[in-house]
Amino acid sequence: MKTQVAIIGGGPSGLLLSQLLNRAGVETVVLERSSREHVLERIRAGVLEWGTVEMLREAGVGDRMDAEGMPHEGCVLSDDDMMVRINFKELTGRSVMVYGQTEVTADLYKAQDAMGTTIVHSVEDVVIHDATTDAPYVEYTLDGTRHRLDCSYVAGCDGFHGVSRKTIPEQKRREFERVYPFGWLGILSRTPPAHHEIVYANSSNGFALVSMRNAQLSRYYVQVPLTDKVEDWSDDRFWERLKSCLPTEVAQSMVTGPSIEKSIAPLRSYVNEPLRWGRLFLVGDATHIVPPTGAKGLNLAVSDVYYLHHALIDAVKKSDETGIDAYSDRALARIWKAMRFSWQMTTMLHRFDGEDSFAEQMRKATLLHLSQSETARRDLAENYIGLPF
Ligand code: RFL
Ligand code: PHB
């Protein structure tokens, strides 16, 4: 098989890149390790920055998002009973869209099917060869048979545990990492959300988050030690902890019910750079991870795709390589700003085990300052709705 751009990974990064390239007449093949059902089962991100919303519209996959997604003009940060509303609309003129990553992915698969692009599922043992030559190729196993895919460029969109990043020799890249000493236990439940906007709650019992997928489907998270297992958390225990972290006003509106999904995600900040090795380009979680506190992971993947799709179109269509030469630096400039924001939000809102009493006061003072300073709120809003591409 032969194609112009081989895309490893059929998550949101790989699918959106494929969608934008094919619309511009650049041919792709997507190689995905899992089945489509499995990819569509994963419950992940819920908040789309305004730039992501515009990109999805531009990619021709915005209709259902516009019909079913929920534009949010603000969110709330709380410290015990103090609630600070960040009015995105008033402070920046923009909003975010609450629309699940699962739905974005489903919309992208549907659009790709309609265009007749090639997405190969359940591939195993993907190996990228000759990335530093003009003729890279990818080998993979499907149903026990080894295949070869020749291409001009390879896009590594295979997430944190993928093979693309590891293909680059260690001496050719640098890694930066901060691992946080806690994770998020998340549940999905068919109950109306406790608040009409997302609530990021700091409390003496740790961090909690109120989010939603629609008016009847809530998504909640609480901070848990890394040693905890999902089995340690019955639904009752979860609801009790959540309630103890939320401002009374929100806790009173909480409607409990059985969880329909429950999982624990560790929190880390991670950057691998550069994002290019010869004709291999890294995108999204394959090269950076943010803690979910700023809702930046999916959105950063989308901004990488924004830079890379323009660059690849110029390279393939016009033999103009300036875009691909600039890709890594352009993407990294935005990545580091989102890293800073996510780290700051995480530090401002979580209890760190073994922390001193000073740390707690710093969190409280930051939240109090936010409640009193429009300048501080505008800074948060500007980052939350998404910095320009
Ligand atoms: P993905 O989604 O991990 O997709 C990578 C795909 O590559 C496949 N793959 C391979 N395929 C072929 N060969 C291999 N060797 C392969 N290895 C892996 C995988 O099966 C998969 O299909 O990466 P991508 O596309 O870069 O997308 C990134 C986003 O998924 C991620 O950043 C967000 O989900 C992070 N995130 C959030 N981001 C936001 O912007 N807003 C949020 O509100 C938000 N909340 C979250 C989140 C992530 C969470 N978890 C579980 C990590 C909440 C949570 C709980
Ligand atoms: C979610 O709805 O899953 C969600 C919302 C906001 C975040 C992280 C996750 O910061």
Can you walk me through this structure?
The chain is of the alpha+beta class and 389 residues long. It has 2 domains: 5-68 and 97-177 and 268-345, FAD/NAD(P)-binding domain (3-Layer(bba) Sandwich), CATH 3.50.50; 180-267 and 350-385, 2-Layer Sandwich (D-Amino Acid Oxidase, Chain A, domain 2). Helices cover 39% and strands 28% of the residues. It has 13 helices and 20 strands. It has helices at residues 12-23, 36-41, 50-58, 63-68, 88-92, 101-115, 164-167, 235-245, 248-251, 297-318, 322-349, 357-372, 374-385; strands at residues 5-8, 28-31, 47-48, 70-72, 74-79, 82-87, 96-98, 118-120, 124-129, 137-142, 145-150, 153-156, 174-189, 199-202, 208-214, 217-224, 259-273, 276-277, 280-282, 288-289. The strands form 4 sheets. Strands 6-5-14-15-16-13-17-20 form an 8-stranded mixed sheet. It has a 6-stranded mixed sheet with strand order 8-2-1-12-19-18, with helices on one face. The radius of gyration is 21 Å and the shape is globular. The model has no long low-confidence stretch (mean pLDDT 97).
